[in-house]
């Protein structure tokens, strides 16, 4: 090992608790602004629907985990948003030995972890309004990294909506690295794919993971990027909802939506990493499965 490598190893950061706290505060503030915007849309539609917030604690085998953390599930069912969940959580503990083998920087001998993040899924009443998923998170094991992104899931796609959604994320990516957008768009296209159906879940977006923080400078850069990813979502998605929420729809449009929702549910239950992570780490079942649509069709 070279002198430089030895020095780097000697000063490797191990305590990320302050950074986890900062990320948590940001995720919670983003949650508050998103929920306020969604409630404003409901008011514009003549609805008084609001989010209900349910706190939860991390459990293992039905028992609370000491110092395991928890989160808050935010849920609204309204006139425009048929079902929308905006969840934040901050949890910690140890992975099971088998699950540790699958996680970046963890192993059976050192399975400790922390995770904080925001996760959002919106299923819309009007089939012309695109459903959406957004998630950003900060995790630590023996390593520390950010992940996240957002993807648009319209039952009835509109090229204008797809272009605007991607443009917002591209602008966020380009502020930090000109290679990010193409890389993370391709990652989303690959990740949000349903192999047994041979179709994509939607029209894509961006997806990134294991954006590692080797030191304080790395954290600041990746945290800034992750914040811009959150802002990109808030900048574009409410505008798409307002663009489509007043459109008339037919029973055939609704059938398309319900059939598409069936595909969405299949992906989330069979392939989604976030669902698996939540189930494997003692998360709240209702919060984990809030991504499932309120109604779907498999005919």
Automatic annotation (TrEMBL):
GO terms for molecular function: coproporphyrinogen oxidase activity. GO terms for biological process: protoporphyrinogen IX biosynthetic process. One of its GO terms (cellular component) is cytoplasm. It is an enzyme of class 1 (oxidoreductase). Pathway: Porphyrin-containing compound metabolism; protoporphyrin-IX biosynthesis; protoporphyrinogen-IX from coproporphyrinogen-III (O2 route): step 1/1. Coiled coil: none annotated. Its EC number is 1.3.3.3. Keywords: Heme biosynthesis, Oxidoreductase, Porphyrin biosynthesis. Homodimer. This is coproporphyrinogen oxidase. The lineage of its organism: Bacteria, Pseudomonadati, Pseudomonadota, Alphaproteobacteria, Sphingomonadales.
């Amino acid at each position: 090992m070279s002198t430089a490598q030895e020095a780097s190893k000697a000063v490797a950061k191990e305590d990320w608790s302050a950074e986890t706290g900062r990320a948590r505060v940001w995720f919670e503030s983003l949650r508050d602004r998103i929920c306020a915007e969604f409630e404003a849309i409901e008011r514009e539609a003549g609805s008084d629907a609001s989010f209900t917030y349910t706190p939860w604690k991390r459990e293992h085998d039905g028992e609370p985990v000491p110092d395991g953390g928890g989160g808050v599930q935010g849920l609204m069912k309204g006139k425009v948003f048929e079902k929308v969940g905006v969840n934040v959580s901050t949890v910690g503990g140890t992975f099971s030995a088998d699950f540790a083998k699958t996680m970046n920087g963890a192993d059976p001998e050192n399975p400790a972890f922390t995770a904080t993040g925001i996760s959002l899924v919106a299923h819309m009443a009007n089939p012309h309004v695109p459903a959406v998923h957004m998630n950003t998170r900060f995790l630590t094991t023996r390593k520390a990294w950010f992940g996240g992104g957002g993807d648009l899931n319209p039952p009835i796609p509109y090229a204008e909506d797809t272009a605007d959604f991607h443009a917002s994320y591209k602008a966020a990516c380009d502020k930090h690295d000109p290679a990010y957008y193409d890389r993370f768009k391709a990652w989303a296209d690959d990740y949000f794919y349903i192999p047994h159906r041979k179709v994509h879940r939607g029209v894509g977006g961006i997806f990134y993971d294991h954006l590692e923080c080797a030191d304080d400078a790395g954290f600041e850069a990746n945290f800034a990027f992750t914040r811009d990813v959150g802002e990109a979502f808030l900048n574009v998605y409410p505008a798409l909802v307002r663009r489509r929420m007043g459109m008339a729809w037919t029973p055939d449009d609704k059938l398309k939506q319900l059939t598409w929702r069936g595909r969405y549910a299949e992906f989330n239950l069979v392939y989604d990493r976030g669902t698996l992570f939540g189930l494997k780490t003692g998360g709240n079942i209702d919060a984990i499965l809030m991504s499932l649509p309120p109604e779907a069709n498999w005919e």
